[in-house]
């Protein structure tokens, strides 16, 4: 029986892996211009970090977390004993909570310090029903900026994300930038009550899930995919009409800065995002797709209370994350040509078995000189060595023959011009490397 990768997970094969590496490198380059430095936090964190940080009532925490009970605790659980909630660990469903935890733990934003600008890239895990753009294990690139509530932080991060998308080849016209404000602790509770009141008036038209949401988390109903609920929620009170003066000002400033930066955006009063930590600015970058739920390639927002939620002192924050697989799939659909992973630039072919050891030695010389070189390891004929060199994408081929070697020469071939010439054996490595460069 063959054992395949678990449902919703995937193997990143060399060509895709090459694109992932280039993608991360582009992110480091673009985000680096804005002062972001790389950080790596554990893939596994204490479950309570996500419960407190992301919110117990969110789908991500209540339904989609992979939670692990380690070693001795699992034994205890199987024996019917109680396992303390504190010892539970979960695979991270997103990166923000872990980065904020690290900022608090290592005091990266001491009083009076400039904002900490951090970026990350890596796997996230959500136990969702797998589909093409919805995986159980997927890769995000994200940034978090802690220590400033200034609207310039929100605007520069959004501009930076759009620049990044442009740099990896996603055409501007295929993306829509949606923006909204979620208010703050002083204006959101009253707004939430207003939405709940509105939902109560329309309770007969709502699905069972939205009825349940009404009590705990009425704003989640804006995300419901049921068309009837969507229609009802179109008429619900809008957060922008309930913002306090400070939030109204903040939001107006962010929008003004986006305009100044020449970024076209659409205000979407129904954009609430799926995680509970957001305050004030939220945004999402969507692309046209058949399924409304899966067309966000990135999104984020402000979370001014999250640091306190995980035990730190008040530290405002802003961040976003984007989905690598969704971006790669989109580029594929747009006909983007991805570079192929190549294992060989110079191939050293042997005319017969007598010179195989010479081929082995020349290959080592080339590798020691820094070239990506390969020779035959399967006793192939010269013809099939040429085919292999071509398949591997070699730009130069050395053809080692007993007669030429006896006279101190190696034949070198330029695979693009098909030109061949004899060079002295001592100059062979340099000649091959020049062709391949
Ligand atoms: P998110 O919207 O949950 O936000 O995820 C960000 C991006 O990750 C999405 O726009 C999507 O491209 C990708 N993504 C999410 N779930 C999946 C999945 N199951 N399969 C494939 N791709 C997926 C966050 O995670 C927040 N931490 C963003 C943030 C950072 N907010 C503030 N700071």
Computed CA radius of gyration, to the nearest angstrom? 28 Å
Oligomer: single chain
N-to-C CA distance: 46 Å
- What would you call the structural class? alpha+beta
Determine the fraction of residues in helical runs and give it as a percent range.
Answer: 25-40%
Low-confidence stretches: none
Query: Main β-sheet: number of strands, strand sense, barrel status?
Result: 8 strands, mixed
Average pLDDT number: 94
Percent of residues in beta strands: 15-25%
What molecules are bound to this protein?
Answer: histidyl-adenosine monophosphate
Count of DSSP-assigned helices: 16
DSSP strand tally: 16
Order of strands across the main sheet: 1-5-6-11-10-9-7-8
Shape: elongated
Task: List strands and helices in order, with pairings.
Layout: H1 14-33, E1 37-38, E2 44-46, H2 47-54, H3 59-62, E3 67-68, H4 71-78, E4 89-91, H5 96-105, E5 116-125, E6 137-146, H6 151-167, E7 175-181, H7 188-201, H8 208-216, H9 227-234, H10 245-260, E8 266-267, E9 279-287, E10 296-302, H11 306-309, E11 317-323, H12 324-333, E12 346-350, H13 356-368, E13 373-375, H14 382-392, E14 396-400, H15 402-406, E15 409-414, E16 420-424, H16 428-436
Parallel strand pairs: 1-5, 7-8, 12-13, 12-14
Antiparallel strand pairs: 2-4, 3-4, 5-6, 6-11, 7-9, 9-10, 10-11, 14-15, 15-16
Helix pairs in contact: 1-6, 6-10
Bound molecules: histidyl-adenosine monophosphate (HAM).
């Amino acid at each position: 029986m063959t054992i395949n990768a678990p449902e919703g997970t995937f193997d990143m094969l060399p060509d895709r892996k090459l694109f992932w590496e280039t993608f991360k490198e582009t992110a480091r380059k673009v985000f680096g211009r804005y002062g972001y430095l790389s950080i790596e936090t554990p893939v596994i964190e204490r479950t309570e970090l996500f419960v407190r940080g992301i919110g117990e009532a969110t789908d991500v925490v209540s339904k989609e977390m992979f939670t692990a009970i380690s070693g001795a605790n699992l034994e205890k659980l199987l024996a019917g004993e109680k396992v303390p909630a504190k010892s539970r660990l979960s695979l991270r469903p997103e990166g923000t909570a872990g980065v904020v935890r690290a900022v608090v733990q290592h005091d990266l934003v001491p009083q009076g310090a400039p904002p900490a600008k951090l970026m990350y890239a890596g796997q996230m895990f959500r136990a969702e029903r797998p589909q093409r753009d919805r995986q159980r294990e997927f890769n995000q690139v994200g940034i978090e900026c802690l220590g400033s509530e200034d609207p310039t932080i929100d605007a520069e991060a959004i501009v930076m994300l759009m620049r990044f998308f442009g740099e990896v080849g996603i055409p501007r016209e295929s993306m829509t930038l949606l923006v909204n404000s979620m208010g703050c602790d002083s204006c959101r509770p009253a707004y939430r009550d207003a939405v709940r009141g509105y939902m109560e008036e329309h309770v007969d038209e709502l699905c069972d899930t939205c009825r349940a949401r009404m009590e705990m988390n009425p704003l989640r109903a804006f995300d419901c995919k049921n068309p009837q609920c969507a229609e009802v929620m179109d008429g619900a009170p809008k957060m922008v009409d309930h913002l306090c003066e400070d939030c109204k000002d903040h939001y107006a400033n962010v929008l003004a800065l986006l305009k100044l930066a020449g970024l076209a955006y659409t205000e979407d009063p129904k954009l609430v995002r799926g995680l509970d930590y957001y305050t004030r600015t939220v945004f999402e970058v969507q692309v046209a797709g058949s399924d409304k739920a899966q067309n966000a390639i990135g999104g984020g927002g402000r979370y001014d209370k999250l640091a306190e939620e995980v035990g730190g002192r008040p530290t405002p924050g802003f961040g976003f994350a984007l989905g690598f697989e969704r971006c790669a799939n989109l580029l594929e659909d747009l006909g983007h040509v991805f570079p192929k992973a190549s294992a060989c630039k110079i191939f050293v072919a042997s005319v017969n078995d007598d010179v195989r050891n010479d081929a082995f030695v020349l290959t080592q010389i080339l590798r020691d000189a820094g070239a990506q070189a390969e020779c035959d390891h399967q006793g192939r004929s010269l013809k099939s060595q040429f085919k292999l060199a071509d398949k591997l994408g070699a730009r130069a081929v050395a053809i080692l023959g007993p007669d030429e070697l006896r006279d101190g020469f190696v034949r070198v071939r330029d695979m693009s011009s098909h030109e061949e010439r004899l060079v002295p054996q001592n100059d062979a490595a340099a000649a091959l490397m020049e062709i391949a460069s």
